[in-house]
Structures are given as C-alpha cells and as structure tokens.
Amino acid sequence: MTSDDAADSAGPPATDVRTLLVLGASGDLAGRLLLPGLGRLLATGRAPRLHLVGAGAEDWDDDRWRARVRDAFAVPPSIEVSDGERVDVDEVDEGVATLRRIEGETVYHQVDVTDPAALASLLAGCEGPAAVYFALPPAVTEKACQALREAGVPDGTRLVLEKPFGTDLESARRLNALLAELVPEDQVHRVDHFLGKYTVLNVLGFRFANRLFEPLWNSGHIERVDVVFDEVLGLEDRARYYDHAGALVDMVQSHLLQVLAVLAMDPPATMTARDVRGRKAEVLRATRVGEPARYSRRARYTAGRVRDRDLASYVDEPGVEDSRETETLAEVVCFVDSWRWKGVPFRLRSGKALGSPRKEAVITFKEVPHLPTGLRGDSRPSRVRIGFGPDCLKVEIDVNGPGDPMVLDRVVLSTDFGAGELPAYGEVLAGVLEGDPLLSVRGDVAEECWEVVQPVLAAWGEGAVPLEEYPAGSDGPGWDRRFPDPAFPA
Questions:
Q1: Model confidence over 143-191: pLDDT tens digits?
Q2: How far apart are CA 83 and CA 97, in angstroms?
Q3: Reported pTM
Q4: Residues facing 82 on adjacent strands
Q5: Which residues of the chain does CATH 3.40.50.720 include?
Q6: Do 98 and 58 meet the contact criterion of CB atoms below 8 Å apart?
Q7: 3-state DSSP of 83-103
Q8: Is the domain defined by 3-191 classed in CATH 3.40.50.720?
C-alpha cells in the first residue's frame, strides 16, 4: 500500500467542520460559485451549526460582505401558503433558518492572507474545527500556506485548495511537501468541481453497471476518445488569473485529465475514496501526450461576434499582455500506456469564445470488420456521447431503416442522467465539511497531471508549436496537417 493509499484508508475525521474560513472572499470565485454552492448545501439541512468567515485584501465591512452572502444564498424572505397568506420561510424550513442565521452572523476581515500573524489571529477567532478555503490564485495560495506553517494550524483543520494546484510540476511538488507539514493528507481537499458527485457517479454507473458496455471498454473495440469543453464565454474580466494560466493549465491540466481518468479507470472494488482515487492514479501514471509538435496545438481568439455579443480580440482585453502569448484554445492527444488502452488516442480540447458550446466526452468504437453483402447505406462507427451540463447520454448506432430494410439508417438512443440536488460546488463542499475526500484530487494525482502536460508546456515555451488564431464566434482554427492521424478528421 502506498502512502497515498494509506491516507485514503484512514477514513474521515470524526468531527464535522464548525467554521468555513474563505480566503479571497471578495473575489469572483467566491461570489460566482463558492457561496451559491454553499447556500444550496445548507438549504438541504446539512451542516446546521456551521459558521462562515470571509477574509480578503479588499476594504469591505461586514455589511457589504453580508450583502454578498445574502445575494449568493438567494432565498425569498417569505412564501405563500394559502389564499394570499405568507409566512417567513425560515419558520417552516430548517435549512433556510440556517441560511438566515449565517447571513446575519457572518463577518469579514480585511487582512493580508500571506501574513502569519494575521492568519493566526483569524484561526484563533474561528470555532473549531475549521476548514480554510483558499479562493486565491495559485501563487498566493502557496504564500498563504507558507504563512500558515509559521502561524501554526490547529488540530483538525482542513485545507481546501482550488485548481490549478501549483503553477507547474516543481511548484506542485513543493506545495504538496508544504501541506504535508501542516495537516495529514486526508485533511487536504484539492478541489476540482468537474468531479461533482453526480458527474462521477453517472459515468461510473453507466460503465460498471452495464455488461453491454464494460467488456467492450478497451482498445480491442474503441477507436478513440474525445473529451471536449468548448465555451461561448470569452475572458469575462479574468485576465488577472487567466492570462498567466491559459487554456492548457486552466482546463486540460486541471479538469479534462480528471475526466480522462474517470473514463479510463479500471473497476474499483468500492466507491470509497481509497479505491476510486487509487484507480484514477493508476491511469494518470500511464498517461502521456504524444510528441508535442504533432499532437498538440494552441490558438487564441481575435475580434468577432459570439451569438448576440461583440468580443474584442483577446490581446485587447484589459489586463492581457500580448508578449505572454496566452492561448485561449488548447488541444492535446494523450495515450494511456496500459493493457486496456494501449494505442487508443484520447483527444482533450478546450476553447473559449467559440460559436457553439460543446461539453461532452465521445467514445468512438471501431468499425465492424465486415458488412454483409446486400446491406447498403453509410455504415458508421457506433458512438457513445456523455454530456457534461446538461448531463446526458446518447448512443449512436446503425439499424435497418424504414422503407427498404436492406438500407442502414443512423439512430440515436438518448436519456438524461439523474440530476443531483446540489450544484458541483455544493457537492465538493459537502465532502469538505463531512470529511470525505472522494471528490478531491489526491496529492500524487495532482503531480501526475502536471507530469502529463509538462512536455507540452516546454515545447510551447520554445516555440515548437505555433500560436494560431481564430475569430471569436467561429468553430476554432481550421484542421492542420500537424494532426495527420485519420482518427481526428476535420
């Protein structure tokens, strides 16, 4: 058993978190995703005794912070029960009562989150045990952890870190070593909201509960796998973070490799953190990108129109430095060198400001070895499409069509996956507050993800892969001879 497996097998702490301390509480992440997810979680009646504390560099008072929390929780003050009679929601709903209490009690502190004395004072004022959520850029997170080492961390504290974990392989290793000095591994939650519980369970349930597919889920029957996350959104005032990260780090390294691991992992014995995270680690240890000059590409958007919005060129966005050559579209082709997947290309792609959103994994099966003489029509490979937001499943197969039964016709069998009661951030926070690391990224896995993309980052830094351009609102850059493999048509 590895040290990481041993940490997973230790089990969750016996005590629930009493205080959630958010560092970077005035930032975009906290307001747009973290606090709404927390509100939905608390509204279900979980963590009724939780306290919320915000901290950041901005000069906010408690009233401004409480207004942000109130807006994020977004619960009406009253509901109609009959004939126009209204009652206060918190009088009939325990979860809403918790929201109301937190809205009134939560406090905000303006602090330098890299100052050991300031962090020590913050933690001393928290009712323990506490979870410290680093809603901060990676470089600031590392400095804050260094400050915590000097300040000291109370027993039972859980540390929650956002993606990307570090800024490169070296910094990820350094940060893991630092965290190991602060708390045990099972008290570290490296957040990836792509691993929101229902996304993971939907994929694993589909794969492992259906004998129709699992015996075929290997290189003997699958031609290729594509994981695509194309967005219509542009930079959206995120230059401070995004211009230092780019699409490869922001999406491929952080999110899409996690999806690859879930799609490619062998069946776990149980759905516990030890077994599921161990299987993911096995996949990522075997994953590599093909030669970067051939199997990677990068591009950024120029001015254009996306739906009903005109977007300026990426380089003209406030806060962007052209000299960084930050990509807004990244694409890599990975190979998993294992018995199950040897030779199967996994294409991971994510882009911004594209004309059509596409968020899905597509598993393309090999063509049949022989089509009996007499069957006519265009026989195409069967495909399984797994959609991410909305979560859905589509199976594309050929059947005998209407009219002439000897002519093949393509049909699509589709269903929606069961929706969870919580958004992805709500699920992630539930794991944090309840001490279950299933949806968190293990330390060795965070490093493996950097290992995979490091050769691509190096090749791009040396100019071995040109930076292409595409108009905002288009389908992205045209196909390229650097991707000669016919498994990836235009």
A1: 999 999 999 999 999 999 988 898 899 999 999 999 999 999 989 999 8
A2: 24
A3: 0.89
A4: 85
A5: 3-191
A6: no
A7: CCEEEEHHHHCHHHHHHHHHH
A8: yes
Which single residue is written with the structure tokens 């190991």? Answer: 180
Report the C-alpha gap between 107 and 180 in whole angstroms: 30
In which band, very low, low, confident or very high, does the pLDDT at 8 lie, cut at 50, 70 and 90? Answer: low
CB 285 within 8 Å of CB 266:
no
Q: How many Å apart are CA 264 and CA 242, to the nearest integer?
A: 29
Note the pLDDT tens digit of each residue in 403-426.
787 888 889 999 998 777 788 889
Q: Confidence band (pLDDT; 50, 70, 90) for 6?
A: low
Q: Distance between CA 34 and CA 132 in Å, rounded?
A: 13
Nearest CA to 418 among 199, 175, 133, 266?
Answer: 199
* Secondary structure class of 172 (helix, strand, coil): helix
255 catalytic? Reply is yes
Q: Please identify which residue in the block is written with the tokens 């197969």.
A: 397
Residue 316: count of CB within 10 angstroms of its CB: 11
Q: Measure the CA–CA gap between 181 and 145, rounded to whole angstroms.
A: 10
Which of these, 383, 323, 320, 384, lies nearest to 352 by C-alpha position? Answer: 320
**252 near 453, Cβ under 8 Å?**
yes
Query: Any idea which architecture 195-419+441-471 has in CATH?
Result: 2-Layer Sandwich (3.30)
Distance CA 320, CA 54 (A): 29
Which one, of 131, 116, 260, lies nearest residue 191 by Cα? 131
Q: Give dist(CA 292, CA 124) in Å, integer.
A: 49
- In degrees, to the nearest 5, what angle opens at C-alpha 224 toward C-alphas 220 and 228? 150
Torsion of CA 83, 85, 88, 92, to 10 degrees: -50
Please count the residues of the chain.
490
Going through 192-264 in order, the beta strands assigned E by DSSP cover 222-230
Q: Of 149, 109, 104, whose CA–CA distance to 125 is shortest? A: 109
CA distances to 110, 114, 146, 158 from 149, in Å: 21, 11, 5, 14
Domain with CATH 3.30.360.10 in the chain: 195-419+441-471
Q: Are strands 345-351 and 222-230 parallel, antiparallel or unpaired?
A: parallel
Q: Which of 221, 244, 255, 370 is catalytic?
A: 255
Q: 14: pLDDT confidence band, cut at 50, 70 and 90?
A: very low
Are the C-beta atoms of 13 and 185 separated by less than 8 Å?
A: no
The span from the CA of 117 to the CA of 397, in Å, is 63
List the Cα angle 254/258/260 in 5-degree steps.
125
The gap between the terminal CA atoms of the chain, to the nearest Å, is: 45
C-alpha to C-alpha distance for 135 and 141, rounded to whole angstroms = 8
